[in-house]
Protein: Polysaccharide chain length determinant Wzz
Amino acid sequence: MNTQITQNPNTYQSDARFPQVQDDEIDLRELFAVIWRGKWIILAVTALFAVGAVVFAIKQPNIYKSEALLAPASEEQGGGLSALASQFGGLASLAGVNLGGKGGTDKTELAIQVLKSRQFTSEFIQKHNILADLMAAEKWDRDADKLIYDPELFNEQTNTWVREVKAPFKPEPSMQEAYKAFSKMIVVNKAKDTGMVTLSVEHLSPTVAQQWVTWLIQDINKVMKERDVAEAHRSTEFLNKQIASTNVADIKTVLYKLIEEQAKTIMFAEVRDEYVFKTIDPALAPEEKAKPKRALICALGTMLGGMLGVMLVLVRHFMRKEQNLESRV
Structure:
């Protein structure tokens, strides 16, 4: 008597899937086995990268950050001009005078952009003679509070540049090179909610960083003051010519008021040194470094070495495995 044995199709499916799961487990076991067999290679590579990271971190010089908190001082002026802008804005525009209405340029934002400009930076570097401190400083002597320059770049005794460069560069760095280096050291941030401005400088010397922040605040206030005073003088001269050329009494009255506001602008600029930015928290010479983060450098270097060691062991294993398979075929 023949008996038929019926089997559930699900049994075949589960049996078909089981070897795949088993193969996956074997692959994982093989993977961990390979890593364990290559543990000395992994440890050696990790140790090599760890030592390299430590040496690299130690050789990095300390960078100090000095910053100052500033408040826009320009908001306190221009009350009369704002009032005139709503009344005589059109006539003033015809006269060539900007009364600073709602559509005018934000003086604080303008000052920030001038501060970041190439022209201002070049004039700042030349005025304070800081090109060597910017481009040739190698390290800072804490005891003497003095910068030590790289002898391959700058000869301090003769005050000459000795660096070797290819054309079109010259031994003495150009203002374009200096601007790129200076832009990496200075940071200007404006808070959107309060309008406060933070000006910071990073340098090898905390004293130099503090001095540069102080000079930057003084110079930007002076530059913006001179710009407004020059503009006010030109506007006053133009308005006086307009008064002399018109016989309409009402227009003369308006023009006299405009001249009066220009005189107020000049007076305001002459009596205040903090013309655009008022110092709320002045710059100090920091006692602690801002960077480098040596512990983080060491940790990242060690982690990178471990990952590279594992990859090296796995690649080496699978390459050998592939070669063995090819040789059998």
